[in-house]
TrEMBL record:
Entries under SUPFAM superfamilies matching the protein: Zn-dependent exopeptidases (SSF53187)
InterPro entries named among the record's database cross-references: AstE_AspA_cat (IPR055438), N-alpha-Ac-DABA-like (IPR043795), N-alpha-Ac-DABA_deacetylase (IPR053138)
Keywords: Hydrolase, Metal-binding, Zinc
Superkingdom: Bacteria
Ranges where the Succinylglutamate desuccinylase/Aspartoacylase catalytic domain occurs: 53-241
Molecular function via GO: hydrolase activity, acting on carbon-nitrogen (but not peptide) bonds, in linear amides; hydrolase activity, acting on ester bonds; metal ion binding
Name of the protein this chain belongs to: Succinylglutamate desuccinylase/aspartoacylase
UniProt-listed Pfam families: AstE_AspA_cat (PF24827)
UniProt cofactor(s): Zn(2+)
């Protein structure tokens, strides 16, 4: 763990005793003194289910508030999972960045904070870094595994994808990949180590926690097909790591996962101009280097020729931008290239 996350105790308190057996529901209380509420606190909902010794698991969604598939998945699990169903402890945090999730926004309306770019956090800052600090220094510091459920949110749409962070050693990478395979999304996407140190998976790595996250659809909505994959995947992971007492049912089927990666930013396609963009390919298409990806039109000057944007590498289209209006620097697509872990 980095030095900035360890020495300072969190300002967040909780109504839940994470060491107690049974099922508890309550809130993480983040002090928030504002004009309308001088001694108020932000209520971050939390569920703790514990039954003796066993794996310690953190299940999280709402890291970005406009990503709903994970929040629905964890609400369902919070209602249905009981202590007699499990071994060890499962902490469920369905609205991790509560202000953002409550508002249905990617970032917090209070401080504009992006929780997944805020780790290891800061106990003496604004709400988003305080939440990041608590997750890393309290929850992850007392966990063995983490599953962080994301999707494309309002601005992106993904193929159902399970995401891992490549380990510092082949052994670490294989542990992550095992969880990805068990989750069973059609696409697996592996980030190389050291690509970004402010995310939940980077925080988990600093704490020695094996973690995966997902990118489950998006477009600011929820679909039955995506939810089925997300709900099934979480339960399969819990069965695989020994959290569920009767894992056979969850693991009865082996599901194919196509493992991909993006070795560099060249696998991401960005808008070169401000305008109205026209996609030339669809999610799941196989594309080749140099192939046209999009046209950017200029309705304000409709006689002007559109700008063409091309793919810089080959691969499968795993992600696509949703809004039609775009600005220079917006991500339009990203690709995955096949690879294997040796």
């Amino acid at each position: 763990m980095t030095s900035s996350a360890a020495p300072r105790p969190s300002r967040i308190s909780t109504t839940v005793d994470f060491s107690r057996d049974g099922k508890q529901t309550g809130f993480l209380r983040l002090p928030h003194s504002v004009h309308r509420s001088a001694y108020g606190w932000l209520p971050i909902p939390v569920v703790c289910i514990k039954n003796g010794d066993g794996p310690r698991v953190l299940l999280m969604s709402g890291n970005h508030g406009d990503e709903y598939e994970g929040q629905v998945t964890l609400c369902d699990l919070a209602r249905t999972l009981q202590p007699e169903d499990i071994k060890g402890r499962i902490i469920i945090l369905p609205m991790a960045n509560y202000p953002a999730a409550h508002a249905g926004l990617r970032t917090s309306p209070i401080d504009e904070g992006n929780l997944n770019r805020s780790f290891p956090g800061n106990a003496d800052s604004t709400p988003t870094p305080i939440i990041a600090h608590y997750i890393e220094s309290v929850l992850l510091a007392d966990s063995d595994y983490m599953v962080d459920l994301h999707s494309g949110g309002s601005s992106l749409n993904y193929l159902p994808t399970v995401v891992g962070r490549q380990g510092r050693t082949p052994e670490e990478s294989h542990k992550v990949y095992d969880l990805m395979k068990v989750f069973g999304a059609p696409i697996g996407f592996m980030f190389p180590p050291g690509t970004e140190d402010r995310t939940s998976t980077a925080a988990a790595a600093r704490q020695g926690v094996i973690s995966i996250l997902t990118e489950m659809g998006g477009s600011g909505t929820v679909t039955p097909d995506i939810l089925k994959i997300a709900k099934r995947g979480v339960r399969r992971v819990l069965a695989h790591i020994g959290s569920l007492k009767n894992p056979a049912k969850e693991l009865s089927e082996e599901l194919p996962v196509r493992l991909t990666r993006a070795p560099s930013q060249a696998w991401f396609v960005y808008a070169s101009e401000d305008g109205l963009w026209e996609p030339l390919v669809n999610l799941g298409d196989e594309v080749v280097k140099g192939q046209p990806a999009a046209l950017i039109h200029f309705p304000e000057t409709p006689w002007k020729e559109p700008a063409e944007v091309c793919f810089e590498e080959s691969g499968v289209v795993v992600c696509k931008r949703i809004p039609g209006r775009t600005e220079r620097g917006d991500c339009l697509f990203h690709l995955g290239s096949d690879f294997s872990i040796d």
